[in-house]
Automatic annotation (TrEMBL):
One of its GO terms (cellular component) is mitochondrion. GO terms for molecular function: oxidoreductase activity. Transmembrane segments: none annotated. Keywords: NAD, Oxidoreductase. This is Oxidoreductase NAD-binding domain-containing protein 1.
Length: 311
């Protein structure tokens, strides 16, 4: 994997608001206390993402990155492709603290790409919905190809199996932009299933079903890639896509996978096996709380229901 030259000279060229700049210098020049970094970010209004995730696992390292592509995923969502430092690593489902030069607030965005893409191309991807929150607003109004940022990986919500693990059936349930970490997990599962073809018997025993709800088909992000993965591995991967506020006809390509209305309890029941199912939920807190209760009512143990709430 080749390394863009800017990544090896970040200490000379990168400028961040004071607390973030200090942490980046510590990463490049020596150890640094994350606790002292947080203490410097004293304003509550500056720490919304950092405060909400303060108890989550974080890597110590903060890495420079450069935007190398911007895609309009929908009318409200932009997908960034970022070239990252060769030491950057993450597990499918994790997020990054996102530091922007000149922007005091720190963003928090889940990766929507797989670790395999990072390994193959040195690229990670983030899909960010438009809001007036400064990091998201910057991405939608000021970010360009060539923009430089810094990222630190965190999160306890991930899927990182080994070939020796017991057979597992993933139930992935997403609402809106909550698809991002689950799409990363689905892509990672697809990569592992492809690896099975050349593994010489060291198979990953994985299957997955995705339930994904959005307002309309345009806001069903990544739907073409999701459907392609399901068609590539029809005995291992499946999906149900839901639209809650669409009255016009659905395009023919996703039409067989589209359901009108919200995710129903019975749609989940068919994919719950208390011994094999591992459920990942990501979406608005009310949705997470309601579905968690439903899944436990179906007999799925609480420790097999993992969730990420995004506000």
């Amino acid at each position: 994997m080749s390394t863009p030259c800017f990544l090896s000279s970040a200490a000379r060229s990168f400028s961040l608001p004071c607390p973030a700049a200090r942490l980046l210098r510590c990463r490049l020049l020596g150890p640094c206390s994350v606790t002292s970094f947080r203490r410097n970010m004293s304003s509550k209004s500056q720490m919304d993402h950092l405060e909400r995730t303060a108890s989550n696992y974080r890597q110590n390292a903060l890495y420079p990155a450069q935007v190398c592509g911007i895609i309009n995923e929908s009318e409200t969502v932009k997908r960034l492709r970022l070239a990252v430092h060769p030491d950057f690593s993450f597990k499918a489902g994790q997020w990054v603290d996102f530091f922007i030069p000149g922007v005091e607030k720190v963003g928090g965005f889940s990766m929507c790409s797989s670790p395999g893409l990072l390994q193959r191309e040195g690229i990670v991807e983030l899909a960010v919905k438009y809001t007036k929150h400064p990091p998201a607003h910057w991405i939608h109004t000021m970010c360009t190809v060539g923009s430089r940022v810094a990222m630190r990986v965190g999160g306890d919500f991930f899927f990182n199996p080994t070939p020796s693990d017991p057979s597992v059936h993933l139930l992935l349930v997403a609402g809106g932009v909550g698809i991002n970490p689950l799409y990363s997990i689905l892509l990672h599962s697809t990569d592992l299933l492809r690896l099975n073809r050349t593994s010489g018997g060291r198979d990953y025993n994985i299957s997955a079903h995705l339930c994904y709800s959005a307002k309309n088909t345009q806001e069903l992000l990544f739907k073409s890639s999701i459907i392609e993965a399901c068609r590539e591995f029809p005995d291992k991967l499946s999906c149900d896509l839901y639209v809650t506020q669409q009255s016009i006809d659905v395009d023919s390509h996703p039409q067989p996978f589209i359901n009108h209305g919200r995710i129903a309890d019975e749609d989940l029941r068919a994919h719950v096996d208390p011994q094999r199912t591992l459920c990942f939920l990501c979406g608005p807190p009310p949705m997470i709380e309601a579905l968690s209760k439903t899944l436990m009512d179906f007999g799925l143990p609480k420790d097999r229901i993992l969730f990420e709430k995004w506000w």
